[in-house]
Every structure is written in structure tokens, then in C-alpha cells.
């Protein structure tokens, strides 16, 4: 059975049932009613306004006072002063907004509707609806074409029908919605913006064509009458990308370039572009089903564990689809909802939340062979670093750059919200910067690394000044928080601000190591390197607390919420590699205890948190527990359209879940590659193709009854391949010649590769 199609026997009644299309910069949610296709439109730069000046003018004097109060144990006073002197002014950054609603209403023949089907094909990136009325077949296809930079809607019928298209849906947040004619062709032009100084302006254009129908307009509606085939095309441009352009003319130009071409050519171009990315990876867990997607999900939620394999195959492919659809090299990165938001005031502003959610969006980009889709994050990081240098200087009197727990399309780095568990956290920029070396480790792209080295350097430079010595002689952050969690003091009071939360020390450890590694690779001879080495020795290491858990704070406090969704103290386990079953078994056992304690108190109750725990269990090589968390993700946090539920909808859980499936099958770190490190017992037989690892290797594997039969390794840049897999193997190159295989002292197998070489390991 084909586990590459989301399909349904009825239209969507609500957002959580609608299906997404996208081309990175723009996208839509589609509902599929027979007589009206509703497209909830998004463009990734349509935000609520321009850049804001939000740095608190009292921060420079308030910061040392807050630090002193924390070091003296006067937490309540410190938190009160922090909110007076350090919070952003205003507390809120700009927020994401939808573009509008496009409705295409059809006048169809009378009669009973049969054979309805709504689908999203993950092999082609094409959305389709089909049904019959009185034996006549009607079909629509929708693509968000990256090559054409247009949203294209193709409608066909066995008998003639009429269609009318109009745009609305932003309340009063648009300026113009009317038909204009150019060269005798009617265009619906829908223009507007936020109204703020230096805000976002957009221009949306819609037109249509039909070989056998009559195209005309009434009011602000485009109409085609008496046609068996017709195509509507929509384009949108904003002043974020084109600050000096005539946006309406630019949008019309997109349509003028696309619509003279035949539909088949546009469709072929879209599929070719999409499949160049989508076809790199495949997964087969030997799961079969003929159920519609919503019925499949419901069956799993009702206890049909035999159907979890085909559901997870579909979910994995869907995660890669969402990455391709939502993040392209010339787009903004994925925010909390990607390009699929319907609310003018979305939850948490649908911003870039950088105390895990934005980073989680990109956990699967490299391992699942979509490095191009990772690139928008680095463009945003350039803005974050630029603004963060000013924030570091004006808030803290320090060099380098910092960012707190949110940012927006302008790269705002001042504290966001008035929420003590999250707001005063200066480590968001450092975590974002870690993606630089992660991209390099998969691609070995030294040009990329050199371009972004200064950002790595400046992220570390900030903390060389921000760290302060505690009573034990350790260097710690202060003030800071363990993201979104609260601790309980011995006197019964609770607190959030602290000195030295474990996640901060772990992130800074990773950051300093990344700078030192990049400095060595690029031969920068950076003068900061000796200071980083010295400070690394003084950073706190993960500690085991009274419950056998990894401590979340420098003091072994109890949490006020033991089942908290964040497990920040396990950053060292995932996404970092500081804790591992192979190198730090005692800490790995404590990490497992930490997770079990969270779960026993109701943890993992949000989709992204559940996905993070699945990744953590995979890193602990516990396939059974990782599988249980993936099962929980499907049962408790997945909508009928397979969108993640926080609740409400947040797309990070989709990407976290996709990454977790990949982590079960293939992992890599500085030591080497591990094949099937956490393959669940239920996945007895299967295969994957195209997953990627550190060192620029691409790996395929086949296993039967839990025994690996075949591994294929493609080496992009050559070098030594170190690989761990259960079994005895022989290695041959692409010509069939045997390749020497060395057994290393740590248990890894090693063999030499050449650039673009292909090697097959066969079980013996």
C-alpha cells in the first residue's frame, strides 16, 4: 500500500483537518469542499509591523543589581527588580499574521455527489480533490510552485461548470481589494500592510485563464463561466523582500510569466523541483494500510498498534514534505506554525521561539538530507547577531552578541514577554549559533563555516564577559533561568531567576567547543581561543541530584512542576552529544532517570515535548521507549491532518517527531556512525535510504528480523568512515573490489573512502 499520500473521504471542516501546500516563502491551507475551495493564505514576511526599539534603558544599571541579589539569595527582590529594569520596552516583538483567504466557488450540476477523495501526495507535492456528480468527474489540483513563485489551482470537469474567485479574511488589515485590467486581462489586486511605521506592505495578484470558458469580473470577483478546464494563479510580494519595488507590478509579472504556459508544463516543473529534494530519502517499515489518514490515526489512537508502522512511515514523509514546503533558501525560517497560520493574533505571536522550538524545527534538516532547507535559519541568525551586539552592549555593557528566548523577522533580541520563567534568558543566540557547526559537520562546507565564523565567535565572546564566578569557583550565567521552569526554595517560596542553570552551562560548553573546532579547521588563530579553553575548564559539568536525576539548577532544587514540558538539563544528551551511553554511561543512566521522573509526573504532555523525549530515548539507544513516545505523539498530540498539537497547533512537534524516527535508525557524532542504534522491537524488518551523517556520508541500510543484511555508504568528501553496527561485514567499493575493514579499539569498524565513493557492507 502507498504510505506517501494523506487522503480523506470528506472535506475539512476545521483547520486541524485542512491540508498544507507551500513553496517556502508562501503557502496555504486547503479545505476541499466540492462547491468551494477555501485557501487560507500565508506569506512568511507578513508580520505586524517594522522593527521596534525595545531595549530597556535601565538595564545597564539594573543588571549588576539583579545579579547581586541573586547571588545573595534574595530571589523575590531580584525578580521584581529585573521586571522593572531588564524587560523589553515594550514587552512584545512583532508577531506573524495571515495574508488572507482565497475562496474559489463552483457552480456544479445538480445531482448526488459520489466518490469524493481529498489528498496530499507526498511524492509529488500536489494537493487534489476529486468527486463525481451524476457520473461526471470533477477534479482540482493545487500546487505551490517554487519555480513559478505562484500558487496555481487547476479545475477540470467532464461537463462545463462555473467558478468565481475572491480574496478576503484580514478583517480591516488591507487597503485595496479590487479588479484592475492590464492588456485586457483582469487581475484581482489585494494590497495592504500593517500600518506601522516601516511596516510590512504586501501586494497580492490573482488572475485566471481557460481555453474553453469565458473569463470576466464583477465587483472584486474573478469569474469563469461554462468551462471544462480553468487555471487560477496567485502571487504575492512584500516590501520585506523588495523594499523599493512596485509590489503590485511584481506580483502581476509572476502571473504573466506563469500563465501563458500550459498546466502540464507548470505541473512538471513543480514536481521536478520538489522531487529533487523529496526523493533523496525513503523509509520502509513494512507497514501496510488501505485506510484514509484520519481513520488510520483514529485506529492507532483506539489501540491498533499494528497500524502504527504505516502511520509513522507517513508521518516521517510528511515531516520532510513540511520542511520542503515551508523552508527554502530564499525564505524566512520556520516559525511556530510555519507558513500555515490562520489567526491575526496567533498563539505566542507565532514568532521564532528560541529556547527550543525554532531549533527543533531544524533537527531533521541535516539528517534527513535537506541541508538547503536549513539555510534560512542562518540568514535570520545574521540579523539576530547584528541586533544582538547592540543588546549585549546596551543591556549588559559587553562585547559579542546575545539573544533572549524569542526573536522576530527583524532579528529582535531584547527580552520578550513579562513572564519570569522565560523572559530573562540570555542564551537563545548561543543555541542558534550551534546550528552553524551542525551544518558544517554534515556538509564539510568550509566556505559556509568561514562566512559564519564571526557569529560563532561573537556568541562566545559575549559569555566570556557575562559569566561570573560562584562560591565554588565555577563560571556561571547570572541572571538566567532554566527555560520556563520554576524551582522551590527550602522556605517554600518559589523562584525562576538563578545563577548557573544546567542548560546554560551545557550550551556554553558546546559553543566554546564549536568555536575552538571551527578555529582549528579554518586556521583562524583566533586570539579568543586560549580564554575559551581556560573558561571551559571552569564551566559546571552535569551533576547527579538526590533523585538520581541530572540536576536542572546549580542547587538541587525541587521543581514546582515535576512533570514540566521542558527537560532543559538534558540538552547535554540531545541535541548535544555531551552525554552518551558509550562515553558517559553513569550520566546516561541519570538522564534516563530524569526522563522517567518527568513522565511519572505527567511530562511529555505537549507535542514538541513528547517528540523531544523520543529523541532523548533514541540517543540512549532505548528503541522501545522511543517507540512508546512516538506512539504517544500519535495518540495524544496529532491532529487528523497530522499537524502537531501543542495544543494549539505548533509545527515543531512534526519536525521533532521526524527527527526522532531518523535518530532511531541512524546516529552520528564525533566518534562515528551508528546504524540502528535504537531500532524498536516492533520494527523487525525494514530499510531506509538516503539518511545523512557527520562527515558528509549518506547511508542506506536493510535489516531482516533485527539483523542488518546490507549497508551502503556514499562519501561526499572522502576520509575515514567509522561505523558501528551489530554483525560481521565485508566491504566492497562500487567496482566490487574489496576494501580493508579495520576493527578499532572502541569497537567501531573503520575503512578509507575517496570523495564521491560508494561502498557496500554485506553481512557475512
Question: How would you describe this structure to a colleague?
Answer:
This protein has 3 domains: 5-47 and 95-279, putative glycoside hydrolase family protein from bacillus halodurans (Beta-galactosidase, Chain A, domain 5, Distorted Sandwich), CATH 2.70.98; 59-89 and 327-603, Glycosyltransferase (Alpha/alpha barrel), CATH 1.50.10; 675-763, Sandwich (Immunoglobulin-like). It has 17 helices and 32 strands. Strand 10 (176-182) and strand 11 form a beta hairpin. The longest helix has 26 residues, at 371-396. It starts with a strand and ends with a strand.
Strand content: 25-35%
CATH architecture of the largest domain: Alpha/alpha barrel
Structural class per helix/strand content?
alpha+beta
**Number of structural domains:** 3
| Number of distinct beta strands | 32
**Which term fits the overall shape?**
globular
Using the coordinates above, name the CATH class of the largest domain: Mainly Alpha
Q: What profile does the largest beta sheet have?
A: 14 strands, antiparallel
SSE blueprint and pairings:
Blueprint: E1 5-8, E2 19-22, E3 26-30, E4 36-43, H1 59-71, H2 75-85, E5 100-107, E6 113-121, E7 126-133, E8 136-145, E9 150-168, E10 176-182, E11 185-193, E12 201-209, E13 214-218, E14 221-238, H3 247-258, H4 263-278, E15 282-284, H5 293-301, H6 308-326, E16 352-353, H7 357-361, H8 363-367, H9 371-396, E17 406-407, H10 428-443, H11 446-466, E18 468-469, E19 475-476, E20 487-488, E21 494-495, H12 502-522, H13 529-538, E22 558-559, H14 585-600, H15 607-619, H16 623-636, H17 652-665, E23 666-668, E24 673-675, E25 686-693, E26 697-704, E27 707-715, E28 719-724, E29 729-733, E30 742-743, E31 749-753, E32 757-763
Parallel strand pairs: 24-28
Antiparallel strand pairs: 1-6, 2-3, 3-4, 4-5, 5-9, 6-7, 7-8, 8-9, 9-14, 10-11, 11-12, 12-14, 13-14, 15-25, 16-17, 18-19, 20-21, 20-22, 23-24, 25-26, 26-27, 27-32, 28-31, 29-32, 30-31
Helix pairs in contact: 1-2, 5-16, 6-17, 9-10, 9-11, 10-11, 10-12, 11-12, 12-13, 15-16, 15-17, 16-17
